[in-house]
Amino acid sequence: MILVPDTSVLIDGRITSMIKAGEYKGATIIVPEAVIAELEAQANNGREIGFSGLSELQSLCRMAEEKTIELKFSGVRPSLEQVKLASGGEIDSMIRGIAIENAARFITSDNVQAEVARAKGLDVIYLKPQITDFVPLGIDQFFDEHTIAVYLKERVPPSAKKGTINDMKLVKIRDQPVSEYELRNLAQEILERAKRDPDGFIEVEKRGITVVQIGSMRIAIARRPFSDGMEITAVRPIVDVTLDTYAKADLIKKRIISDRRGLIIAGSPGAGKTTLAQSVATYLSDSGFVVKTMEAPRELQVPDQITQYTMLDGSMSNTADVLMLVRPDFVIFDELRKSEDFSVFADMRLAGLGMVGVIHANSVQDALQRFSDREDFSVLSQIINTIVFLEKGVVTRVYDVGFTIKVPEGMGSEMHIQPVTTVTDIETGTLVLDVFRYDGQTIVMPVIPGTPAAAPAPTAKAVPAQSGQPGLPAGKPGSSLASIPDVTPRAQAEERPGWKLNEKEIQREIGRYTDGAVDVEMISDTKAVVYIDDKDVPAAIGKGGKNVSAIVNKIGIGIDIKPRSDLERQHAQPAAKPEGEISLGGGIKIQTDKKQLVIIAPDQSGKIVDVFAGKEYLFTATVNDTGEISLAKNSSIAQEMLRRYQNNETIRLRPV
């Protein structure tokens, strides 16, 4: 009998097992040079399957020396062009060609290769994946019922972690060091099992490192140049727990099944996060939800009805695109490491999918910091609703993530009111963290223990301009005012420390658009007037107010940019601030007192009007039913209108 094996059979390792069993004893085995070239290339690239295939080839040579088989080599080495086309089947075609030339039986464990060979008329022996009758792996000898992980490295005695998650210790298994030869045999056996076992697969195969999953055991095989010596690390779970066995299980169930379906499981390495994640996945599946997982590597031990996905074309973003088409109820993401992972998690959660993520962190503050460094803090509460923190396999805290408008805790009166993401201990109601923007940075600030959580402010909603309140329509020509509503009155003579910080931040942001000085005058906690060189005003405002609006959104303070010539005119001829009533003509009057400026226009009652000074547009407002527009006298709008009046410019109203 003449046999021609392909690369998959040598990596698989079953051909020598079958010869030893007497099945192909006395056969002539012809190994194509293309197979040797492919194995050599894989070994040179540090891939463990290359070494495994070469070890199998060496076993065939020893059998040939013992006259058990006849071994021949045939064909030519593939050219560089053929190697480049290997993924398209060029080398496989060369291997089949050797079988055709020698009228040999073609043996393969690659299903596609077998089908193509049959189509070519070859006599094919297809070695299907082995389902049963697996003997224990050599590495199993290092495990007992208390072993969680085994560490084997050349020239070092083997050691293992034993005990429970709550109580683990590193134990030396034997005094004799592990040899490289022993590790190579173990690695070859592991790879052969991964190829044959339906529950086994190679998760990672890169230069110097191979990660294999066989059933519940995850095995990492490292060699030079990735590591300083050959090493095998095997990890497996020792207990199968359900969600009900955890403390606070009822609280976790209530949170995850409600509308708040963004949950993060956080803890230090080895705290039991993955075990809790698979318990949550099993509970959700048993509760009638469609559950999928995203893992790299796939290590969750979940029921068969839960499909486990890994990276598609090397990217979790591609996997997310597929899952959006599949539309599961929940996705378990194990675990979030790279920036892409956080972005994918956020996108899928904001798209409406229930998401459970696993993240390494030593505290809830660290977990939230990792998210806030990558996602805007203002949407954190929409992405993450619940954080479960574990220590040594025990759920110690469950936190709620919310959103409100307030002054951050501990910042005192020097900070203005602003959006804040809050983290609260659900069981005690204690506020734990505030997340907010300060000085252009996202701050995750711990709150002093015992501080009660602030009551959330009413949700802000867009409302139409109220009667007597000025508004600024987008795109009005000549308008350089970009502001947000006042929430505090203007300070009188006293200085506020927070204003100094805000002035410096505004100077830094506006300074990007001018080479000259930037003078900032804080009008209130949420409004400022900025004077810069006349020629730089258009650049600072930007097309359609784009630049100044971006600054306003970033620092949360309304900014009125004015040319420096206006400031110089004010110093040269300070604008008078008349008290009482001023007639503007056309039935329009202005009344002023210490706090208010009221424009009286009975003919425009109930109308929306544009207010002009001469030919220049100032602002838009709604005249109330009594024919009045009320402004804060110290507001920049009122002061600008009075200045224009003092400069003998005609103030007029035009209905919109």
Structure characterization notes:
With 656 residues, the protein is of the alpha/beta class. It contains 19 helices and 34 strands. α3 packs antiparallel against α6 (90-101). The longest helix is centred in the N-terminal third of the chain and has 18 residues, at 48-65. The protein is elongated and about 120 Å long.
N-to-C span: 97 Å
Mean pLDDT value = 81
Largest sheet composition: 10 strands, mixed
Radius of gyration: 37 Å
Strand content: 25-35%
Strand order in the largest sheet: 15-14-16-17-13-18-19-20-21-22
Query: Judging from the principal axes of the Cα atoms, what is the shape?
Result: elongated
- The SS-based structural class is alpha/beta
Our count of helices gives 19
- In total, the number of strands is 34
